[in-house]
Each structure stands twice: as structure tokens, then as C-alpha cells.
Amino acid sequence: MSLNVFLQNLINGISLGCLFALIAIGYTMVYGILRLINFAHGDIFMMATFFAYYAIALFSLPWGLAFFAAIILTILLGITVDRIAYRPLRDAPRISSLCSAIGMSFFLQNLAIVVFGGRPKPFFRPEFFDQTFVISDIRIQSVSLITPLVSIFFLLILTYIIYRTKTGLAMRAISKDFDTAKLMGINLNQTIALTFAIGSGLAAIGAILWALRYPQIFPFMGMFPGWRAFTAAIIGGIGSIRGAMLGGFLIGLMTIMIVAFFPEQAGYKDAFVFVLLIFVLLYKPEGIFGEE
User: Fold this and answer.
1) pTM (whole model) above 0.90
2) Rounded to an integer, what distance in angstroms lies between the CA atom of residue 164 and that of residue 141?
């Protein structure tokens, strides 16, 4: 394989890894605070693409405004999911919250089928994102270059919020000791709602970038990136933001590089990802950056 082909696939792998990282952060933030896997997260990701699609198709909004509106609506959806499915079960056994999460996932999928229809829809891709840059013999779509820049920008903002603001301090306090944080006067419901808002917002950004990269949307589209991002969060260390970032990058690079280097094994790329997951669980069960 030539150096140019390797660099082209490396850029594609980094771009895909950034998308997985954005989605994985939503899983890891909710787990870090509530010790709950939000199985509806992939479906919130899916809903964001439909919000953007209909903002353009029905209301004829400019694509920038439509994408912003979709992010806001997705944030509100994430807060609503917490309010309806999880907040009433704060003091219930964990299995109750788990069942509620799975039920909310099925509800959003079927709601999308009823409201939006089951047939795939073409997602609008602005010409700006459809351009192809040629550097030497490397052909790169603009969306593959824009995705890492947008992802890193928002990941830096998230890092600042978590480690440099009082809200981030409250989130970290709740993740360490739920009951003590409550005794210290931290508003648990407000902080948890904000956690869902941030995770859903990042999922919406990832969803729009995903739809620009693969311009076809349908009600079950959140399952594939959702499970990949969940796997990335486990590999990196669920509950760790930097672990979710690293896990996303690893899985994105692995997915692209397996197809590039071993095309005859491309159909087994998912198996390689889960083999990596099994090895991590066997030899470092808490994940790369997870805590024991």
C-alpha cells in the first residue's frame, strides 16, 4: 500500500473516530453520574438527523440554521428523556432504570417509524461539504476534514466545562459520591439534566456530521453508531471522558484500516472490534482510563 493511500485512509479513520467519540461521550457522562447505560442515546442521535431533515424540507430553513435548530431540539429531547424515563426511578433498583432505558429506545425507534416513515430518506448535503480536495494523489472529501476540526473544537469546550467550571465540578462530585453531593447542596436533578443536555447536544452534532458523511437517514440508523460508540466507551473506560475519546478514535481507525489493509476480511471488521473489546474486558476490565 502506497503512502498516499495510507494517509487517505488515516484521515478517513480519524474522521470516523471523531464521530464515535462525540457519541461515546454521551454514554460515558450519563454512566459516570448515574451508573446507568442510556440505551436510548443512539436513538436520540437518530432523531437529530430527522429534526435537521424536516427543518430544511418543511420549513425551508438555511442549512446552518436548520442544523442549529436540530441541535437545540435534540438537547430538549435528551432532557425530556431524563425527565420521563429516568428521574422517577432515581431511587429504584438499577434493573428498573435499565428496563426503562431499553423501553425508551424502542419507543423512539417506533415513534420515528410512525411519524417519519420507515423508508430511508436522502439527507441534504450542502455543496460546501460535497467538495473533494486533491493533495498530491490523496482525494479527501471536505466533510472528512471538517469533522475532526468540529469534533475537537466541541471536545475542548466540553473539557473546559468539566474541569474549569462550577457545573463541571458538580458533575464530578456527583460521579464520585451521589449522596454526599446531595448533602453538600448540589442540585442533583438540575445537574443530571444538564449532563443529558450536553451528551444529547454532542450526539446531535455527531449525527449531523454522520448524515453529511453518509447522506441517508432512517429510524434504525442510530443502532450501528450507537453500539460502536458504546463499545468505544467501554474500551476507553466507561465514565471517563478522555477514555471515550480514545476509544472512539481507536474504533474509527480500526474500522477504516481493516478495510484498507485487509479488504478480503472487510466483512469481519465488526468481529475485530468486538475481539478488541473482549481482550480489554479480560485484561483491563475497567477500560484503558477507567477506575477500578
Assistant:
1) yes
2) 35
